[in-house]
Amino acid sequence: MPTPYAYFRGEVVPLEQAKISVTTHALHYGTAVFEGIRGNWNQDDGCHYLFRLREHFERLAQSSRIMMLNLKDSVDRLCELSVEIVERSGYTEDVYLRPLVYTSSEQLGVRIHNLEHDVLIFVVPFPAYLPDSARCHTSTWRRVNDTGIPPRAKVTGIYANSALAKTEANLNGFDEAIMLNEDGHVSEGSGENIFMIRKGKLITPGPADNVLEGITAATVVQLAKDELGLETVERQIDRSELYICDELFMTGTAAHLTPVVEVDRRPVGTGLPGPLTSKLSNLFYDAIRGKNEKYRHWCTPARVRVSR
Ligand code: PMP
Asked: pLDDT tens digits for 129-152?
């Protein structure tokens, strides 16, 4: 039977032993930064491939720096710990690692300085997050601005913004929200970057449109360039362009690469995943499961330990 493990207070322990107090600062004020990392199960190789592990911890370090949170462990150490946790947990299905750097002090008061910070990582089984193709709507909630809470940092507090948008979308019968930024341009989904194909060009909003600088997005940009000879254009996208584009898809660690087939009750293109999206999707899924030698360096293997 798989038993989930966690890295908690400097040790690898069974997840059920990793408990924090109700008075923990981060719980009250959203003063934490996090990552989401996929461990993609490969049945043939009998292991998980942790996708772009290092890049995720490098982004965690950047988020910590922006939020002045002290990340005690090195990127190398966090990578090693992640492999250990997945190996010891014994899952034989897709998993998700959640590293969190948080204000662990148990005193009230809104600030981030002069408080203790800690880092934890845990693993959970994680099936598909979105349906095979998604129906979206434009959210009435605007994406937070860099002048509010910087969205290029994965700050837990920002996810109140994402949660409002996601819940509104779901309660209105859609799979995911597309958020505009304060100046009305397309920003991103509640937990995904967005790409549009128009007149053969692959287009995505740039960092100045208040997006998280996605690791899946960077992967797709590279696959499009290397495998299809398609350069990505980073530019502002109007909401109405989504209604007339040829293809649309979202990318994210949880969402993988998900075609968007409907926006605001208008079909995208033919209303089915488009040809470029499908090509990119095939390339992407092979890469993340370690099935393409050329991109194996993105995949850190974690082998299930038979006896513990
Ligand atoms: N935007 C937001 C708001 C997210 O939460 C995520 C998920 N981390 C993404 C984009 C996609 O980023 P990545 O591909 O690095 O997971």
From this structure: 999 999 999 999 999 999 999 999
**Protein residue with least CA distance to atom 10, ligand 1:** 192
Specify the DSSP class assigned to residue 238: B
| Count of domains observed in the chain | 2
Tell me the residue length of the chain. 308
Q: Is the CB of 99 under 6 A from ligand 1?
A: no
| Closest CA to ligand 1's atom 2 | 191
Cα dist from 176 to 33, 52, 61, 247, 278, whole Å: 23, 25, 28, 16, 20
- For the Cβ of 217 lying below 6 angstroms from any atom of ligand 1, the answer is yes
Give me the phi and psi of 43, to 5 degrees please. -60, -40
CB atoms near residue 143 (< 10 Å):
28
Give nearest CA residue, ligand 1 atom 7. 191
Residue 154 appears among annotated catalytic residues: yes
* pLDDT reported for residue 308: 44
Task: Tell how far the Cα of 192 is from the centroid of ligand 1, in angstroms.
Answer: 5
Whether the Cβ atoms of residue 302 and residue 83 lie closer than 8 Å to each other: yes
Q: Note whether 204 and 145 are same-domain residues.
A: yes
140 in any annotated domain: yes
The answer to whether the CB of 187 falls within 8 A of the CB of 59 is: no
Domain at 170, CATH number? 3.20.10.10
Q: What is the pLDDT of residues 72-93, one digit of tens each?
A: 999 999 999 999 999 999 999 9
253 C-alpha vs ligand 1 centroid, how far in Å? 6
> Which stretch of DSSP H or E encloses residue 64?
helix 53-66
Domain that holds residue 57: 5-125
CB 215 near ligand 1, within 6 Å: yes
Amino acid at 241: E
Query: Model's pTM, two decimal places?
Result: 0.97
